Amino acid sequence: MSESNIKDMQQIVSLAKRRGFIFQSSEIYGGLSSCWDYGPYGIELKRNLKNKWWQAMTFRSDIVGVDASIFMHPQVWKASGHVDGFNDPMVDCKACKSRFREDKIDTSAPCQNCGAKGEFTEPRDFNLMFKTKMGPVEDSSADVYLRPETAQGIFVNFLNVQSTMRKKLPFGIAQIGKAFRNEITPGNFIFRTREFEQMEMQYFVKPGEQMKAMEDWKELRWNWHISNGIRPENLRWHPHVGDELAHYADAAEDIEYKFPHGWDEMEGIHSRTDFDLRKHEEFSGKNLKYTDVQDGNKKYLPFVLETSVGCDRALLAILCDAFRIENEGDKENERTVMKFHPSLAPIKVAVLPLTKKLNEQATALFHDLQKEFKAEYDVAGSIGKRYRRQDEIGTPMCVTFDFDSLEDNAVTVRDRDTMNQERVAIDQLKNYLRDRIYI
Ligand code: GAP
To answer: Rg (Cα) of the chain, in Å, rounded?
Structure first.
């Protein structure tokens, strides 16, 4: 049996639409550029991914969670440097009016849209934050921003969380939430969008301990992606050097994934020093220092190690990694299968009665499985067609209820990846599924 992997993004875009994972936003109105809606299977996959991240972060005694507001005091973004420095250099083609990020193209080459040569404007800074008005009065005091990262909601709550949870260093705060950036060149499906979700964790440590924390978190985060079923050969590290290093960081490394458009950033691990807390102290006038009772009541600002992964980007990597075509070109035996890790699969088990005549007994089994597993029932079409449909949405196990089931109280369980079939007693079925899903 031959197996091929994803070759271009269009394969994922069309499967995602065909099978109800991801649709273009406002499609009936012609769509809105770079905005996407998660469909029924997409949202299950996304929820499973977020739950897995939340569990990896907060099911430990040194990390707690928050859910901060998207709108924050405008001074937050002054303090963080986003108002003055969160810019990308932008150039326009004077011939066709297309806009590009200057650092992503060769401005001495012809325009990639219309082919005009020497028509680019001088680069200008373009601030990526979305600005809007809060309240009914249209004056400048009502200006607010849609947050461009979730991290600042953690920094401004550092003391609230530390004191109410009685946390000692080192400890972390985790958050999942939407972020917004007015990207100049969004694209590659859900890779770069203007509205996206981040899963960020700030780990507060004693100054001087940030590099050890960085090494520990690098290992944990790498292994987390592997635990999602990503193949190690599709991951690599990209350390930030020279100009790449943000002004607030003393070290940073990205985990890159081999997307169909090339190697690109999926997660950033940043050692952010005490930059953010120091700036918020300065701008708010509030003392944000930590009192170290284990070290003679010394007062200092902790250093911060950040892990930041885009939920949509991690999900795109999971879609790309899971995508396989087996026996490509062989009309009878070709099948497209999404080999999701069972913990992430949108549907864990499908119940497929051999014929409608078995509906009553098969439905009873389905309803029982539904109490514990996200399950689906399908009686329409040939069994082969029903298997293929479940393969394309990545359901790890299909349960066939046949006439023998009425006699022997057993069902046939078909494994998505090997297509092997096994007869399993119905009273053992839940245990059988648990052993193969919660791995
Ligand atoms: N708090 C640090 C921070 O926001 P970042 O490298 O700008 O750092 C972190 O973003 C992660 O957020 C990226 O690695 C990526 O996964 C995701 N991300 C950033 N911009 C994005 C966009 N326009 N669309 C989708 N995901 C994005």
So the answer is: 25
What strands, in cross-sheet order, belong to the sheet with 349-353? 375-377, 349-353, 397-401, 410-415, 421-425
Q: What are the tokens at 151?
A: 């991290």
At residue 76, the 3 state secondary structure works out as helix
- Which of 373, 366, 362, 364 lies closest to 395 in space, CA to CA? 373
pLDDT in tens, 178-210: 999 999 989 999 999 999 999 999 999 999 999
Q: Of 195, 267, 199, whose CA–CA distance to 36 is shortest?
A: 195
Alpha-carbon dihedral sign for residues 148, 113, 26, 344: negative
Residues pairing with 410 in the sheet: 425
Helix intervals (H) in 172-263? 210-227
Q: How many A from CA of 196 to the centre of ligand 1?
A: 8
Both tokens of 7, joined, read 């070759």
DSSP state, residue 250: S
Closest CA to 124 of 141, 103, 149: 103
Identify the helix (H) or strand (E) that includes residue 386. helix 383-393
- Note the pLDDT tens digit of each residue in 406-439: 999 999 999 999 999 999 999 999 999 999 998 8
DSSP 379: -
The verdict on the CB of residue 310 being under 6 Å from ligand 1 is yes
What is the token pair recorded at 15?
A: 């499967």
Q: Which atom of ligand 1 is nearest to the CA of 191?
A: 25
Query: What distance separates the 2 farthest-apart alpha carbons in the chain?
Result: 79
